[in-house]
Amino acid sequence: MASLFVTATDTGVGKTLITALVVLKLRRLGVDCAFMKPFATGCRWEGGELVSDDVEFLRHATGANDPVELCNPVRLEPPLAPLAVARLTGVSSAAWPDQCFEAFLELGRRHECVVVEGIGGLMVPLAKSPDLFTCRDLASLWHLPLLLVARRSLGTLNHTLLTREVEFNPGPDWRGLAFNDATPLATDDLAAATSPGLLAELTGLPVWAQVPHLEDLSRGTLEEWAERVEISGWNFRPD
Question: Is position 37 annotated as part of the catalytic site?
Answer without folding.
Answer: yes
